[in-house]
Write a structure and sequence with these properties.
139 residues; mainly alpha
Length: 139
């Protein structure tokens, strides 16, 4: 089998790249889709503002460790319960859409970009060690 660089076509390289990244797309899609399934079907109390399991309660624990501009945003959201509920439901819907798009492969580049933005938002909200956080998240 000849494996010289002249034998590898650009189409062949893209095909192998897509084949190797498909399991990562499926796992990431399931991660986001299962978050919605957990909140909506398995434990519906997570979206009930009167429940002790309400997802909005996590925002309270995020505030002391939130990075940069996210801290005042979280404080505002927590101070206004109706906004908190809308944010929790909207975040759940976006997670479901991103998960479905990644699993099916439809608009996977856009879904991948949105999944990176969702993950970066969770990182900035949950906080972390200041010395490990890029300067883009520090204000």
């Amino acid at each position: 089998m000849d494996t010289t660089s002249s034998n590898v076509t650009p189409r062949n390289a893209w095909w192998w790249g897509g084949l190797l990244l498909t399991p990562i797309r499926w796992v990431t899609g399931y991660m986001f889709l299962s978050a919605m399934l957990r909140r909506e079907f398995y434990v519906p109390a997570k979206l009930d503002p009167t429940s002790l399991q309400y997802t909005g309660h996590k925002f309270f624990t995020f505030i002391p460790h939130a990075l940069g501009i996210v801290k005042p945003l979280l404080t505002y959201i927590v101070d206004h319960a109706s906004v908190l509920y809308v944010v929790a439901v909207t975040f759940t819907i976006i997670e479901a859409l991103v998960g479905l798009l990644l699993i099916t492969g439809f608009m996977s580049r856009l879904a991948g970009l949105v999944s990176v933005l969702l993950s970066a938002g969770i990182l900035a909200g949950a906080g972390g060690r200041e010395e490990l956080v890029p300067l883009a998240f520090q204000w």
